[in-house]
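Re: beginner question about structure tokens

> Can someone show what the tokenized structure looks like for a real chain? I only ever see the sequence side.

Sure, here's an example I had lying around. Input first:
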Amino acid sequence: MIKAGFSKRAKNLFHRNEWMTDSKRKYREATTWQRRFWEHMIRDEDDFRKHMDYLHFNPVKHGLVKRVKDWPYSTFHRFVKNGFYPPDWGGDELGEIADTDFGE
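And the corresponding structure tokens:
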């Protein structure tokens, strides 16, 4: 559900013909998602937090934005509103947190 909503909103931003492989064209796949997938059951609150940290920090890690709060498609904003994160979580610039593996 998260994937579908994100894909619809970000389609024009992330679809690039030059990123399309012959295989992606053949199977009419988008350029946003990789084919690999693995299932993971969240074990506890700590595991949930690590996964949320990983998801929310990814746009910074991959150079799409400088701060977590700058990624407009993120659920981070909802998590801040609900008190899960402080508004400045992840820092103002790519720093020490960039070396965190978030359980990867």
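Each token stands for a local structural state, so reading them left to right follows the chain. Residues 1-37 form one domain.
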